[in-house]
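A.,

Following up on our hallway conversation. Structure tokens first:
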């Protein structure tokens, strides 16, 4: 029986530098460190990890699994919204023969080489323009953001098709942040994982509210903004982003605000 966590569980240490987790809706656990989210979905058919966060998230994952009376061996698959290093972090350490790694064909190469990604602008200028982001960048480094190994996908995700993982979420291809970026809609809990296609916190600018991520980590901002319409199709009660807090104001409003915020 899954117990509901009424508040985030912070696992000691300095804020932002240490992992924490919470249950955002019954059976969906948000794991985070250094402003990077990943999620564990509990279905009657098994456990699925949506993205693999930073390596420092491993402590939060162990805590959630202990809370559930489960182990890493109970995780059936990792679904990647995309192949950037901050969403691949734990994957190599969790990988075992029976665990499937699922990604869109457009990000299959990036998943193996998670630092070799296209971007519109240099990330080096952002700490100078937005100095408030420096503590978050330091927290990412502390949580081994510079030491992420890639993994090979064992299955491919296709737009509009159900993924063969517990809960059978619908795959929503949203290119722009990366060429193979995907969101996932789990109908039973009614949640839409938006990855970095639509976030509520940009780690490069520190700006909050629905938006796309700055050009420091986005391959094509115009395409990313155009792709957001796909997220309006499912009837999602909650949007769960790769960075920032859950959004419950509806996908249409989130898309409208993201487009109003534009590119950075």
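Then the amino acids I'd put at each of the 264 positions:
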């Amino acid at each position: 029986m899954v117990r509901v966590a009424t508040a985030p569980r912070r696992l000691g240490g300095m804020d932002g530098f240490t992992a924490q987790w919470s249950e955002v809706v019954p059976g969906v656990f948000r794991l985070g460190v250094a402003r990077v989210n990943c999620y564990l979905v509990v279905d009657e058919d098994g456990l699925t990890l949506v993205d693999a966060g930073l390596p420092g998230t491993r402590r939060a994952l162990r805590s959630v699994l202990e809370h559930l009376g489960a182990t890493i061996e109970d995780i059936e698959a990792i679904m990647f919204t995309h192949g950037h290093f901050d969403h691949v972090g734990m994957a190599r350490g969790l990988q075992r023969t029976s665990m499937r790694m699922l990604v869109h064909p457009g990000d299959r190469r990036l998943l193996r080489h998670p630092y070799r990604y296209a971007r519109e602008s240099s990330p080096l200028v952002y700490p100078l323009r937005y100095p408030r982001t420096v503590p978050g960048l330091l927290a990412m480094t502390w949580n081994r953001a510079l030491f992420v190994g890639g993994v090979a996908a064992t299955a491919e995700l296709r737009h509009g098709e159900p993924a063969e993982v517990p809960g059978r979420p619908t795959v929503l291809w949203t290119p722009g942040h990366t060429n193979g970026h995907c969101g996932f809609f789990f109908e039973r809990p009614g949640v839409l994982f938006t990855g970095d296609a639509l976030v509520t916190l940009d780690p490069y600018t520190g700006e909050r509210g629905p938006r796309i991520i700055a050009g420091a980590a986005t391959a094509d901002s115009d395409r990313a903004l155009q792709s957001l319409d796909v997220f309006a199709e499912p009837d999602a009660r909650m949007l769960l982003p790769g960075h920032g807090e859950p959004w419950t104001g509806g996908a249409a409003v989130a898309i409208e605000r993201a487009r109003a915020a534009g590119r950075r």
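The chain has one domain: 9-261. Curious whether your intuition agrees with the design.

B.
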